[in-house]
Amino acid sequence: MQVLHVAVDESRRSLQGIHLGELLHRQWGGTMALVSVVASSDQVDKRRAALHDALDRQELGAYRESLEIVTGDAADVLAGLASDPGEGLLCMTSHGRRPASELLLGSVAAETVRRAGALVVLGGPRFDPGRHGRIDTLMVCVDGSRPAESVLEPAVNLARRLDARLQLLHVVEVETDAASVLPGGTGHGDIMESGYVQSLARRIREADGFEVEWEVLHGDSPAEAIHRYLTPCTNAMVVMTTHGRSGFSQVATGSVSREILHKAHCPVGIMRPVKGG
Fold first, then answer.
1. Would you give the DSSP letter of residue 174?
2. What is the pLDDT of residues 103-119, one digit of tens each?
3. Whose CA is closest to 56, among 22, 18, 92?
4. How many domains does the chain have?
5. Predicted local confidence at residue 184, as pLDDT
6. Nearest Cα to Cα of residue 233 among 119, 137, 122, 99
7. Residue 276 domain-assigned (yes or no)
8. Which domain range does residue 114 map to?
């Protein structure tokens, strides 16, 4: 039976991941377990005691029995859980830090996404479990590129597992050139991009027998357009890929996924496309 893993440490913020796990588990089924990673075996007892105390203080003591303390490199261990299809699904929170030149994700979450090559479900700093009693809609962000489309298969699988609808979101940049507008105010780009998402929806329907909705958004900034669309939504989850570049100012995600994770009150599923995929 597949397991929904929730990565935690003793911080209050990480324990918010339990509420994220509970939200998914209501529809996921299977089992839900907490996992915490320490660098060496001599830290296991200290971490277990700290987590038991933290769980009790948060009135989450029922999860004591499901807690597993693992030794090793945290990102490697968690990425292994995320990338093994037999293990199920990994979810965790970000720390919400946002220095000027760094990704808001904590370094462990960022490295986990970068190394996993599989979907990881994250709760950003504004994740609000109170706004989501269940996941009715998975909103998948696509941009016409193969890397972005690589998340479609895992998104379909997750939507099927959660018995949720699937919706494609694509942002068309605002046309400022009057020559690019057809009579009646319809832009060439709008028509082309509408055709793109309709084609993707048809492909998924034919290949997977799964009905797909779609929406074309408009704006100068894809992140802002997606955020505006998400803001009034409840019972939703957004899914997207990351560029997966590493480095000081590009730790794990591209600017769009970084901004969405920072602002979204809903869960955000992020996947780094496998190189060559």
1. P
2. 334 578 888 998 998 99
3. 18
4. 1
5. 41
6. 137
7. no
8. 3-271
